[in-house]
Amino acid sequence: MEKHMTFVPVRLSEVQQEIERQGAANPYTPKEFDTSSYASEDAPGMRLPSELPYSYKRWLAIYIGNRSLRNSDLQVVSIPNSQIRFLLGVASTSVPRGKINEEYRSDLNDKILPLFIDLKFPEKGLFMRIESCSANDAVQINPGGALHTVDQAITQLLTSKKVFDALMSSRFQERTERLYYYGSPVLPERRHASFERTISRREPLEIFFLPFDDRIKPERIYRVFCPPGWRFRKWRPQMTAISQKYWKQPWICSSGITKTQMMERARRIVKGCDDARKLILEHIDVDDKLDLCLLHQGLVLDVFIDEESDTSFIIKMKVFGMMSSCGSCLFEWGRDREILNREGKDDVREFRVTW
């Protein structure tokens, strides 16, 4: 296990009790795990972070290289802004049904199908996502959601509630964000600064397709928490916590192996997570204000790790903090603030799994 990182099993019984409490449909019941989106009055001294520095498209080349893919493996379908209202109209009736509303089939074939016609499908299929989320909650025709035809891709796009909600919240409101950072870590004198970026509602919807990888399963993904860089020497965010992302089920390494083997796998997982953190920091441009904002806000990484083969790569990066939309998995942003934000007197860092 890496220095300072403590392995902390969370009892499965505690997790199951929390799942039952959250399923009781009482919005006022405090959560013990997986919190996010704190209100400003519950997060004193904090500012709503910007998600712009963590843009999937902005870091996509790093993700592709990290998976040993070629740039040519990426395929992008661009849907004109003028067609997005039509897509949302189709999705609004298709998502509840779990299938495409056939009343729109003719218009889909005329307006949308030609945009997908150049897609090339490898033997194992394609994985699809938009900028803000994947469509893994959609109707899955094939195991794991692999796509083998254009019709399957369109069906997944239009039956995903996550995609529908993301488009509804972002496509019809042009907004300007103010982003904050704390100078450059290479300057002798650093100072607080800010800048503005305008997000246009006129941009097309880009859909990203990568080769489907059947190794990527939820139980092998880990969430890595790295608070703002100014909390550390040399402005290099460090890991303060790791959680299995698939926290509602027992850890994949929790049975069938000895304690010695389990601790060795935990050590490999921690190393793989830290390698992912270092990779992102290697590509930080101190002349880029968005990168400086990322250092100022901190980051959360979702990392795939196969501890048996020592294979690891980054799935995506998210914004850090209790006011962000990033779930805390087996931590709780408020209760575990001293650990996650490194605010405690002791340098406590934890790797939590469900046991």
Tell me what the structure shows:
With 355 residues, the chain is an alpha+beta fold. It folds into two domains: 5-56 and 216-354, no CATH class; 69-170 and 205-211, no CATH class. Helices cover 29% and strands 20% of the residues. The chain contains ten helices and eleven strands. The chain has helices at 12-22, 56-66, 84-97, 105-111, 113-116, 150-158, 161-170, 259-282, 289-297, 337-340, and strands at residues 5-10, 75-79, 126-130, 175-182, 192-199, 205-211, 221-226, 241-244, 299-306, 311-319, 349-354. The strands form three sheets. The chain has a six-stranded mixed sheet. It has a three-stranded antiparallel sheet with strand order 2-6-3, with no helix packed on it. Helix 3 runs antiparallel to helix 7 (161-170). The protein is globular, with a radius of gyration of 21 Å. The two termini are 18 Å apart. The relative contact order is 0.20.
Search tags:
11 strands, 10 helices, six-stranded mixed sheet, globular, 355 residues, 29% helix, alpha+beta, three-stranded antiparallel sheet, 2 domains
Total domain modules: 2
* Binned strand content: 15-25%
- What does the main sheet amount to? 6 strands, mixed
What overall form do the CA principal axes indicate? globular
The CA-CA distance between the termini, in Å, is 18 Å
Overall mean pLDDT: 90
Number of strands: 11
Q: Which residues form runs of ≥5 with pLDDT under 50?
A: none
Physical arrangement of strands within the biggest beta sheet: 1-11-8-7-9-10
Count of alpha and pi helical runs? 10
Q: List SSEs in N-to-C order.
A: EHHEHHHEHHEEEEEHHEEHE
